[in-house]
Amino acid sequence: VVLVVLLIVVIAVGIYFRLNSIVKAVVVNQSSNSLNVPTSLGSADVSLFGGSVKLNQFAIGSPPGFTAPQLMSLGALQVGVNLAGLRDRPLHVRTIAISNPKMVIEMKGASLNIKKLIDNMPPGDSDPEPADNSKPLKLVIDDLFVSKAQVVLRPDLQGLTAIPGLSKSLNKIK
């Protein structure tokens, strides 16, 4: 019995000290599988007792055929919760802070990178109703902060000329 308890304690301590790398691997794996494009994450910082998670340098790659290395990136994403309220419904989140988000909207011919990303995503469940008749999760966020956001537009002038009515205006730009 003592050996079993000692083994459980050793495993728990090992998981606690490797939690950041475990979260990083899960975020990259799940986001890449869900989006069908490469993703990367610089680091994850999980504070179990502080009730927060911070993801640093998260990036979503562009779909094939587009030149921007990343469709979207975040400098950091931090979420803070009250641990005692994690089982409450609605779920209560103290704060979400997003810093340095950057979205690159690129056009190649008549195709947009964001549309191609959505089209290439794996299909979801065909039955949106959960089998156990559970209710959808309701979420309350006290504070949402977004700082230093950027949107970069990369139009394809040749692709834009195919849009009726725009070709005459674009000919003046060239």
What can you see in these coordinates?
By secondary structure, the chain is α+β, with helices and mostly antiparallel strands. 30% of the residues lie in helices and 36% in strands. Strands 1, 2, 3, 4, 5, 6, 7 and 8 form an eight-stranded mixed sheet that branches. A hairpin with an 8-residue loop joins strand 2 (52-61) and strand 3. The longest helix is centred in the N-terminal third of the chain and has 34 residues, at 2-35.
SSE map:
Layout: H1 2-35, E1 39-47, E2 52-61, E3 70-81, E4 91-99, E5 102-108, E6 111-112, H2 113-120, E7 139-147, E8 150-154, H3 157-160, H4 167-173
Parallel strand pairs: 4-7, 5-8
Antiparallel strand pairs: 1-2, 2-3, 3-4, 3-5, 5-6
| Cα-to-Cα separation, first versus last residue | 80 Å
- Percent helix range: 25-40%
Query: Major β-sheet, in short?
Result: 8 strands, mixed
β content, as a range?
Answer: 35-45%
Segments where pLDDT lies below 50 for 5+ residues? none
Order of helices and strands: HEEEEEEHEEHH
Rounded Rg: 22 Å
Which structural class do you get from the secondary structure elements? alpha+beta
With helices defined by DSSP (H or I, 4 residues minimum), what is the helix count?
Answer: 4
